[in-house]
């Protein structure tokens, strides 16, 4: 995590957070703000808006800018400003009446470079305002994409997530967001593992197959059969009763 | 050597676990009913006098034969679903039943005796128009089939006619212009002659014309209210002859299109010259064409008469007229007779019931063919016995004061005593009767819950809008209720609002009927035990309904509250008493619901406000250009999970992720190319809209069948690359520690669960899938899989476990995990319905019984099959051959032995003390 104060920006201190998809992580120094659609290598940015009102009517305001980068290594970072005094008070009031804190991002595609990257409509998610306050603005925002790189959903949770009714006295705790941001592409479901199974079967087959198959029944037990037959023949010759192979064996 | 042995032990134990039905158990716990659907064509077997067979072709593409005395199915042929198997026409002659199938694709001849196929011929391309037998000199040798090849011809309606000659006539009409008559030669199919007749008033020859008498075409014109006659075989240029209805003193009802009905008893002979003219919905006249072929005589006026038909045997012809009391709307009436004029009639009514009537109007049998298309069903517990209910009722009523309470108690005791005496008397009375005469008939009055709650009431909703109450033990229909004015494209949702558990209040079911196109809905509230409509007035629903949800909130009468969300996101509660509204206001902030618009790929969540309006709180959008939502499934609300986790080989516990709000959303790609097609499985929390997991099955295509239960999702799809069916299982675990072990809240579960997945090859396509359900969830789960062959496979969930190891280790052996094998076996002893196949299984319904080991199963489709399954065998039931004598004698022996030894020990102690 990097927290880099800069004066060149509007007025605010920008704690930045970033994160990764797969093994890729990037650091945002806060130099790029939400200035619309650049189509250059550095990706593009979309606004992240939030709304928290005592009367629960959504009025979305700017919270920060999401810096998205498509392509093979999808990455996302967020630059956001601090909450103002007024916002902090509102947030506390909303938390007191168990209101909701909502965020939204516009629907965008990470892959289409030029045309129609932006579609109409927003993706919305919410968290209870009290849990946001009690967690001292530590939230985890997750963006979900589909197979072709469209953003399909956003989710926000706070850690910890519970509302225990503890008062947050220190105003400083509610100034800056401590955001963890991830972008999750779909996972590929596994196919049936036929190759591995066949390999395993072959190994097992080799292990126990060889010694058993070669010897026939007679080859294995000739040392018992031959004396038995000899014995039967001899007893049969003595007995003269003619029936007797089986009976002879018994006696 | 130890590894193979352990493998063997596992497989052996599986073999022991799997069970099949013994021969003497067949039909003991299960029953099957076979149906055919709505009749399109019906014929009586007129080949021999003594025969009592009926032949039916139905809208479900079935050709079937019934015993006309009992209504039992003799045999049936189930053809393909959809237009490929549609039966265009069924004609019967002698022992041959000829059938044109699949829009004129095939011509089949069946042997009516055994139901075997004589021959089948593939016809030339073209859509089917008409067919008839062609006979020469009393022998029927040919069948003429008229088909339309392409759109070249400009005729719009046709009639084929042959009157026992070597020519076949085809009549075609160009609407409001002229009629063309073409005669074909029977030998080579060549056109012999072709003539054209001016007929500017005629628009369709099929609907307004019939052939009667010696080849006279009779048409009716609704505009001028006149009959027209035309001799078809006339040599000279023929002309229509007009006869005004007024001249016959006939009057057509206002706005009614007159209809003609005629009959041709034998293909070798001309049609009879008598015919019916329908003048109004309930008004028919029997008319006769005189021998001159131009004048008409009125024979008799029938009013009211809704249905008419002709039947002929030998030289006699019977005309049948029906005046049904109910709104029996459309028909197939047929008849047959012995030497005297005797007849039987088969009536198909609007509610898809098939009724067979003997001459004096006696109903011989009725088949409820609506049950061939069950849409949804529920199983409801039966009420307690009368006496129990009576006693409960005394407590249920509000009592005031001590004295009335005592009186009530006394009166209920008296009632109990009375019932007991009656029971004793009945026992005594029945004991005197010879065995076997004691009837055990199930009627609504004698219905009561059995000891283990194994007998339930099956409430079935059919596509025709008829509701049925069926006893699950015997399969007998106990009540039926026909809902009129149900649109053919209606969708139904059956909700049990109050079970039988709250005695003085009757159980209550609500059926939500929604028109698919307009979204307008209506509610039908009824008592599921007796089928009677409830006196509670359902709310009026002026706006289209998007979603319905049953809340766990109950009103003062113990009915669960049903919330209906309309297209303006306003909520209607039913019942909406003051009490309910107050409760809703209190709970509003914790009532969340979701809406899915699959056409826009939009999933959104809402929260209820105190004023019963709603606010949108989350939104997930799956772009429809990429994938479309095909199915969404939550978990069943009555499902119990007994164990919170799984004990692993190293004795640690892997906790299950048991989110009751989890939705499984299945999507299919819009791109159908085998290489790029995919199936998506999304697990979304229904409260927060959080995507818990998103898996993509590449190179896969639907139809996807899936089951979502406990902490797992099982889905089946078609692998386009390997061209086979595959099963995949997803299981969700919280890990070795629970975040909050006391309560689950979607709002407070910040960590995503671990997801395990494994995929297997399944050697058969499937039609439907469901999981077993038991009272407490202790019994292991099985998947019930309906196969296209009609078999129902009970597949142990153990085989669909993503933790099946590739390589067997000590730990996995400890856990009893089966080593991974890519192919899922199908064992015939897993078929729960042995040889009782269920044709075209559409759905499987499972319900818990009072016994933990037993799950009740109903499979429905064309047939209905009910049985019980025991996924972990009957661990809570003593076997039939349990040795009671041995166990009790051992107990007694031990008891006496302790008594005696105690006595001896006392004596010994005493003796020692004296010493």
UniProtKB/TrEMBL annotation, chain A:
Component of the ER membrane protein complex (EMC). Keywords: Endoplasmic reticulum, Membrane, Signal, Transmembrane, Transmembrane helix. Residues 1-21 form the signal peptide. PANTHER family: CHROMATIN COMPLEXES SUBUNIT BAP18-RELATED (PTHR21397), ER MEMBRANE PROTEIN COMPLEX SUBUNIT 10 (PTHR21397:SF4). This is ER membrane protein complex subunit 10. It is found in: Endoplasmic reticulum membrane. It is a single-pass type I membrane protein. The keyword DNA-binding does not apply. It comes from the Eukaryota. Belongs to the EMC10 family. Pfam families: ECM10 (PF21203). One of its GO terms (cellular component) is EMC complex. The keyword Transferase does not apply.
UniProtKB/TrEMBL annotation, chain B:
PANTHER family: ER MEMBRANE PROTEIN COMPLEX SUBUNIT 1 (PTHR21573:SF0). This is ER membrane protein complex subunit 1. It comes from the Eukaryota. Component of the ER membrane protein complex (EMC). GO terms for cellular component: EMC complex. Belongs to the EMC1 family. It holds the Pfam family EMC1_C. The gene is EMC1. Residues 709-914 form the ER membrane protein complex subunit 1 C-terminal domain. Residues 20-149, 157-369 form the EMC1 first beta-propeller domain. GO terms for biological process: protein folding in endoplasmic reticulum. It is found in: Endoplasmic reticulum membrane. It is a single-pass type I membrane protein. Keywords: Endoplasmic reticulum, Glycoprotein, Membrane, Signal, Transmembrane, Transmembrane helix. Residues 1-20 form the signal peptide.
